[in-house]
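A student in our group prepared the protein record below, which I am reviewing. Thanks in advance; the entry in question is below.
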Amino acid sequence: MSATILPLRPTARAPLPSLAAAEEAPGPLRMLEQAGLGIALIQQRRITSCNQYFAELYGFDEPAQVLGSFTRDLYANADDFNALGAMSYPVMAEGRPFKIELPQRRRNGQTFWARLTGTLLDPADAARGSVWIIDDIDARKSAEATLASVREQHHLILDNVLVGVCFLRERTVTQCNRAFEQLLGWEPGELSGRSSREWYGSDAEWQAAGQRCYAPFRQGGAFEGEMVLRHRDGHAIECEIRAKALDAAQPELGSIWITLDITARKAAERALRETQADLERQVQERTEALNRLAHYDVLTGLPNRALLEERAQQALAAARRQGQPLAVVFLDLDHFKTVNDGLGHRVGDAVLRELAERLRGVVRAQDTVSRLGGDEFVLLLPQTDAAGAAELASKVLAAAQVPFHVEAHELTVTPSIGIALAPRDGADLDALQRAADTAMYRAKAEGRNTWRFYTAELQAQSDRTLLLSNALRRAIERNQLSLAYQPQMDLASGRIVGAEALLRWQHADFGNVSPAEFIPIAESTGLILPIGEWVLRETARQLAAWDREGLPPLTVAVNVSSVQFRQADLPALVRRVLDGAGLGMDRLEVELTEGAAMQDPQAAIAIMNTLYENGTELAIDDFGTGYSSLASLKNFPVGKLKIDRSFVRDIGRGVCDRAIVEAIIRMAASLGMRTVAEGVETEEQLAFLRERGCNAMQGYLLARPLPAADFARFVRERTVPP
């Protein structure tokens, strides 16, 4: 861009203010400065003031280097300079702006095209000088020159190319070559002035093509792709299209389209693909048949020993990485030889096939049921502990006891089952299978139609687990479950702001069963879902009762297990429970462990977001003992972190624990989360937490978990009347 300076008649006047002074008040110069235009004030053919952009246009670093220069130096030649003065003065003298496009010269001698706009400061007194605005149009001029050259040559090109070429403006033909007309079945000149709608089968196709093709034009790019056009007689033509705007800066100039008929080529490609696909299908079918023979039992269709070993290696490796249990179950039918000997192998084979289907029906999708041969089956159960294995063994026994109807026979067969657990009983499939086989023989020796663990210790534990599992199924209906409430205190105000609901089980024979014992059983058997729903409903019922008794509004935290949290309908359940009790969504706080949140972070975030959007506050329980990453934690809509009691306990003795607690508090604050310390038992711990900015606490220093009535009394005693 350049500043044009007019030869003006000198008159003794006070000097004009500089641009810097002019910019102090909003006005046209200020606006143009922001618009990226060069501005200069000219007096007596000298530059008396200019902006930074003006200086840079002419190759100077700053305006000071330009001031005082003769305007003649800014023009490509003297003729332009002299002619400009003659042309501009009469126009500006009438009070009108003068505009012109001329070549300008930079400090290094390089020329460029610019648009010059000049205005006298005072048409009645030309000696006061003029203001010139400079716009660099060199790129546009270059494009115009190129376009003119192209237009001169394109006629020759169009007449000699073998592909269809068409020029469109506003989707109307301005020009096309003979090849394009012949491609679509039109006579010479018939397409001129017609809409491109002529070569599409419908308005919808035409509109879709416009959206697809013109979108790249608006981004300054081109379109390349395949498209189906319609011949004048209606038949389809598969074409390869290349198109672009003639000038990306001026889309109104139109676009050029190059079209190649690829109908025959596409037909050949389709035929080739069909042939190849047919060959691949044949190869795939043969490969699958061979794979099935190599990995599956012919009689039952179950995985054979080879496939069992492959899956066992993968499952054991995953179990080691994740620190999870794995069970191997060995199953052998009792006295099955008498079936084969007495009724024949056809009947025996039918029983084995039916048993295989029943076994498939009692396992999970991730489990493997395999047949080793004869009447021996092995079940591989990833992520299964002793309780889960015992539960499955019970289901297998029940499934086998249903009579088998084969031909005219009604048969009952019983299995003996042995169970081995990794890593306790073995680190590989061979060791685990031997252990399970040994346990199976012990089951046969102890009466058959039963199951045994490899170790007596686990067997004893399993017996208790089975008893507890059966008892837990009736715990709700027998009113054996209850909730205790541990108060939570705000450290800033000293007020009781809520509580954590803790599940208790009082059994007539087993006494008080620890949650650490019965919660895992509930999770492995699926009982945690009805129990968890009972906890939610009981908590909501108690909150509503406290409200009616006049207690201040409290928030109660409920622990949600990983099994519950994986249920997509959890947010809807929470809403139904609270709506049914007439409570707001903010009265319930959902607590989950780090492990539950991190098992499937994406799914966890989806459920958390729904709970959060409903108004339910979320908290991470026992924070610091799990394995959550900060990258995931910052994406969780969590409002609270609960500092695990193991860190709080040693605040007074361990520097490391104090540092961990302080780090958790600071991190939570930086993420906009509150912190609650668990297990606070001493004044020293409380003072440390309060000093470090912890928001709330719970623990024996404040109160033990209390029955509902005692909790209400505790809150009233600590509530200061207004």
